[in-house]
From TrEMBL:
The keyword Signal applies. It comes from Paracoccus yeei. Coiled coil: none annotated. Belongs to the leucine-binding protein family. Residues 29-397 form the Leucine-binding protein domain. Residues 1-22 form the signal peptide. This is ABC transporter permease.
Length: 443
């Protein structure tokens, strides 16, 4: 299979899933997947969850209001350049369907596509990722860092450390190190952590790890010398288990390391073995397969041999559940758009409206089987995040165990920082912020 993927990539062709729908009435959704390369351990499960949910919607629910999903894979190895190439190939749609939105599934790719997508009027969807100030839809109408932005991740992580230390006042004089993937993704929390350090009086230590992060002895030697009280781990792919194992080798306790969203899956801890026991991470996507949606997908997809998941033991793994949640966000946004514009494939402007009016309340979460797996979310033209909460989960050596209820981000700090950064971006790029109240309906 790997040879087929590479051959398709070199030939400039796409990989079409066996259940892709080829019909003019279907909504076209291209997927820049990464099943090979240093991030494949995450990508394999992530895309399996997404594809299983789309297959479930097509085969069990008959599509969304009768509109099927025509999804197509393109292998990128999480390369921003390849993701941009995919975008350019698919931005005009396919088989009679316009392109409603584009999943980037990678912060560097989102950064690379921001201006292109805005010019093309195609929404970029990057849940719990993207450029954080794009929460401000008045400056970034076509970028959606849905659910749990990087600034929210930073404030929630510090909130949990404060809980463990006995209150925010106990943070003064503490040392908190952030070990980060040296990319647009890894650097994205720096502004928020700097504000938090100023507010609560802790020492802010930032230590980069070059991609892909296979060797981290210098970084953990520095951590041993600086002796921080906590480490906020913002790694990705192979760099996360390497970090956990190297921390143990240098004597830093796993229960004082908190991983962010993209450093908190089975793919991150299982390869680290015993060194990962006690490790904690932010969990806007909890692990587990006892949610209602899992029961539905197991009966309709897994038990009938239709799943994209290669190892059934990983059904309900964190990365698989990320795929399910991202699929639900897309489907519910399309459903919102179809209710407004009619049950037919949407274009980018219509999909932007749909995402900006997406609301999934507790009653709807229960109806679609995501109660407890997905937090309630409400997107508006001025707020493209809409969630802003996470739980903390801890690895016990065999499974993730939730340690907290939902912890809300410091919304005042996040909003102020987003306003500052988005205003600077608007000035630099000569953008006049939109006034959503004065806009005409895309219909």
């Amino acid at each position: 299979m790997k040879h087929l993927i590479l051959a398709a990539l070199l030939a400039g062709t796409s990989l079409v899933t066996p259940t892709a729908i080829q019909a003019e009435t279907a909504q076209y959704i291209p997927l820049p997947t990464y099943r090979t390369g240093p991030y494949a351990s995450s990508g394999e499960l992530w895309w399996a969850g997404l594809l299983d949910y789309f297959r479930y919607v097509n085969e069990v629910e008959g599509g969304i209001d009768g509109v099927k999903l025509n999804y197509e894979e393109f292998e990128t190895e999480w390369s921003p350049d390849r993701t941009v190439e995919v975008y350019e190939r698919v931005k005009n749609g396919k088989d009679g369907s316009p392109l409603a939105f584009f999943f980037t599934h990678g912060t560097p790719a989102t950064h690379a596509l921001l201006e292109k997508a805005a010019a093309d009027r195609i929404p970029l969807i990057d849940p719990a990722g993207g450029k954080t100030e794009s929460i401000d839809g008045t400056v970034f109408p076509y970028a959606f860092p849905l659910l749990f932005s990087y600034y929210s991740q930073a404030t929630t992580g510090i909130a949990y450390i404060a809980q463990k230390e006995g209150g925010y006042d106990r943070l003064r004089g503490k040392k908190i190190a952030t070990l980060y993937h040296d990319s647009a993704y890894g650097r994205e929390t720096q502004a928020a952590v700097a504000k938090l350090a100023e507010k609560y009086g802790f020492e802010n230590i930032q230590i980069p790890v070059a991609d892909p992060g296979n060797e981290q002895s210098p970084q953990w030697r520095q951590i041993r010398e600086l002796r921080p009280d906590w480490v906020f781990l913002r790694t990705w792919g192979v760099s996360t288990p390497v970090a956990i194992k190297t921390a143990a080798r240098f004597g830093f306790p796993a229960d004082h390391i908190i991983g962010d969203v993209w450093a908190g899956s089975e793919s991150d801890v299982i390869p680290a073995g015993k060194a990962a026991v006690g490790y904690q991470a932010l969990a806007p996507y909890p692990g587990g397969s006892d949610f209602e949606i899992h029961r539905r997908i197991k009966a309709a997809i897994l038990d009938k041999g239709k799943s994209d998941l290669r190892d059934p033991k990983l059904f309900g793994a964190v990365n698989y559940n990320i795929g399910l949640v991202n699929g639900a966000l897309a489907v519910e946004a399309l459903r919102t758009g179809y209710a407004r514009f009619g049950a037919r494939p949407l274009n980018g402007e219509e999909a932007r409206w749909a995402f900006e009016h997406l609301t999934i309340d507790p009653a709807r979460l229960k109806e679609i089987g995501f109660n407890g797996l997905l937090q309630p979310i409400s997107i508006t033209p001025t707020d493209h995040e809409g969630g802003g909460a996470a739980r903390i989960q801890q690895w016990d050596g065999a499974k993730w165990v939730l340690q907290t209820d939902w912890i809300k981000a410091d919304t005042d700090l996040v909003k102020a920082l987003v306003a500052e950064k988005s205003a600077a971006y608007a000035k630099e790029h000569k953008i006049t912020p939109r006034n959503p109240a004065a806009e005409t309906d895309p219909s």
